[in-house]
Amino acid sequence: MSVETVDHLTSVGVTEMEKAEHTVKDLDASKLTIELTNTPRPVPELNSKETWSCRACSDHMVTVTWLEGKGWQAPKIVPYGPLTMMPTASCLHYATQCFEGMKVYRGFDGKLRLFRPDKNCQRMVISSTRVSLPAFDPVELEKLIKALMKVDGATVPWPDLSTGWNPSGGGVPGLKLLASKNDTRAWPGGFGYAKVGANYGPAFVAAMEGRKKGYDQILWLFGPDYQVTEAGASNFFVVWQSKEGTRELITAPLDDKIILDGVTRRSVLELARTRFVAKSAYLSDAIKELNIIERTYTIAEVEEAQKEGRLIEAFVSGTAYFITPVSAISVHDEEFPINMDAGHTGHYAGMLKEWLMEIKYGKVDHEWGVVVDED
């Protein structure tokens, strides 16, 4: 969506609540108009370079203009193309912009699905108001996304019905993380919890330095005690055995708003809390009961668990990386390995990935897999 104001300075000082009350009722998906392209593109092959590049775009996009004093205008689906803006646009000077990341899946039953789109839409309202952009009804945004998918859904290739998948059996290269004690990505009272551009651009410098040293992502730390927060732009999890002998799934909390409330993160926690429990049918010799804990923890605790043989596995979650195991972490120029079950993935990460893929591709009927009506 594009936001247009007469004078970007006039919104300064307006509280998020006042802005939300003024604009939330204005976005109206029922006013949508559609202009189709005259040059539709062919459906890309499932495993083509085009598909894997994640750079090719579908034929259309949704645009909605917001005008000061008038609110949201009628949304439009138009042919995909560049946006036009003035050099004085506040997003170029003051980072008044936000975004969301989500995927659409063509299921094995042929149906198109979005994964928990309501959560992405709700989060975009949070991000928008965090940088003084107008709020909107997330339900209306979800309707617009579904409308776009109805128009461009044909460009989503079918999965390979002959092979299916085996997320815990095939080799998955683990991520190598460089724990940064010099750079800080987010802090309490900041905007680490919002998907705004200012959250990501400054992090590229450390990420590029990490890649020069052979690491895939930065493990972001915070504070004098080096609290573990996120890995790159993904949420980070560890599974370890506590000193008392219980198995725990640990991840940083949302309370101080340092980390993003990831949709995949939320889903991992909700599944783990209901399936990695005593007497669960999902438990086995490798998959044992877990205590699910969201708390502040330090990189020293992770190092200690590894040295004492209590670190079972680690993984990241997010829209881009989905669920990917971590194979090593470097702290103070000293790298320590993390178990990956014969080089594949950790048992818990593999199981969580399989459950989520079943939902996304329609192998199981679940409320998180929202079917898009293409008729």
Reading off the top of the CATH hierarchy, the class of the largest domain is best stated as Alpha Beta
Number of domains: 2
So, the CATH homologous superfamily of the largest domain? Answer: D-amino Acid Aminotransferase, subunit A, domain 2
Detail the poorly predicted runs.
2-14, 162-170
Mean pLDDT: 89
Query: Strand order across the biggest sheet?
Result: 8-9-10-11-14-15
The largest β sheet comes out as: 6 strands, mixed, barrel
**How many angstroms does the end-to-end distance come to?**
25 Å
**CATH architectural type of the largest domain:** Alpha-Beta Barrel
Radius of gyration, in Å, reads: 22 Å
The count of strands amounts to 17
Describe the fold and architecture.
This protein has 375 residues and is of the alpha+beta class. The protein has two domains: 8-155, 2-Layer Sandwich (D-amino Acid Aminotransferase, Chain A, domain 1); 175-360, Alpha-Beta Barrel (D-amino Acid Aminotransferase, Chain A, domain 2), CATH 3.20.10.10. Helices cover 25% and strands 22% of the residues. The chain is built from nine helices and 17 strands. The protein has helices spanning 16-23, 49-53, 90-94, 117-130, 138-152, 204-212, 263-275, 299-307, 347-360; strands at residues 33-34, 60-63, 66-67, 71-72, 76-79, 104-106, 112-115, 175-180, 217-222, 227-231, 234-241, 247-251, 291-294, 311-318, 322-331, 334-337, 369-372. The strands form four sheets. Strands 8-9-10-11-14-15 form a six-stranded mixed barrel, surrounded by four helices. A hairpin with a 5-residue loop joins strand 11 and strand 12 (247-251). Helix 4 packs across helix 5 (138-152). The chain is globular and about 60 Å long. Mean pLDDT is 89; it is low at 2-14 and 162-170.
